[in-house]
């Protein structure tokens, strides 16, 4: 049996989890998550935090049935009023989500009615910082997580979970010929980005291949009503994993230099 332990495998099976098992995250696993978070905070300059056993942040959504037993979350904390840090929160937050997926946990980027004040009470936030967003995390209620189900079935479940924009839609700024001529790594990057979560599943990030420089470019689609630096960061992370190595510059219009 093939062992699927790579981030691209997590990209191919991750779905948004809304219903959680009420059992707490295993302490050893929580420590592993904490170690990964610490490493990503060092890389990013963010202050992402793992908050466990605090369901009051999701009391409304748990009561309405929009979520079930949501009690743990990744708090994406960083400098106030800083667009680049918001993008980094999406980028490194998605990296954390994919790590959690490999550990068999479910996650969900929460853009709706979470209780910000309650969530902030459980975080360390300095006067120069703000809590950008939270990501729910825990064991899926149906126990259909990575590591305890056939990989191909999990991939199939993802494809049935939601519709994604096509390669043509995500590269709509390119000519048909350039789309066809683009290298395989670019096409693989776009395919991975198509599986990235985004607010209201709007998928607001477009990709282009610059044939003169060989770089990829990511831009926020002006035709999508809700788009944010967080979505841009999330999509860039998935693209980078799919493309198999390289480095992004930050910002709308940022370039991916293939390594």
From TrEMBL:
CDD domains: Nitro_FMN_reductase. It comes from the Bacteria. SUPFAM superfamilies: FMN-dependent nitroreductase-like. Coiled coil: none annotated. Residues 7-243 form the Putative nitroreductase TM1586 domain. InterPro entries: Nitroreductase-like, TM1586_NiRdase. GO terms for molecular function: oxidoreductase activity. It holds the Pfam family TM1586_NiRdase. This is Nitroreductase family protein. It comes from Bifidobacterium mellis.
């Amino acid at each position: 049996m093939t062992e699927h332990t790579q981030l691209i495998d997590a990209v191919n099976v991750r779905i948004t989890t809304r219903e959680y098992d009420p059992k707490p995250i295993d302490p050893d696993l929580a420590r592993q998550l904490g170690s990964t978070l610490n490493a990503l905070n060092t890389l990013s300059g963010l202050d992402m935090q793992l908050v466990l056993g605090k369901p009051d942040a999701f009391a409304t959504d748990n009561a309405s049935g929009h979520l079930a037993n949501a009690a743990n979350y990744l708090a994406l904390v960083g400098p106030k009023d800083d667009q680049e840090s918001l993008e980094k929160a999406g980028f490194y937050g998605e990296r954390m989500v994919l790590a959690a997926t490999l550990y068999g946990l479910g996650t969900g980027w929460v853009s709706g009615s979470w209780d910000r004040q309650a969530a902030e009470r459980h975080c360390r936030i300095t006067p120069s910082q703000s809590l950008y967003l939270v990501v729910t995390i825990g064991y899926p209620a149906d126990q259909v997580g990575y590591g305890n189900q056939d990989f191909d079935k999990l991939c199939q479940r993802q494809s049935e979970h939601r519709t994604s924009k096509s390669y043509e839609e995500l590269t709509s700024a390119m000519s048909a010929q350039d789309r066809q001529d683009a290298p395989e790594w670019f096409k693989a990057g776009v395919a991975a980005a198509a599986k990235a979560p985004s607010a209201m599943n709007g998928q607001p990030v477009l990709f282009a291949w610059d044939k003169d420089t060989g770089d990829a470019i990511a831009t926020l689609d002006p035709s999508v009503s809700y788009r944010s630096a967080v979505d841009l960061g999330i999509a860039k992370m998935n693209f980078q994993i799919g493309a198999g190595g390289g480095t992004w510059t930050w910002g709308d219009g940022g370039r991916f230099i293939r390594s």
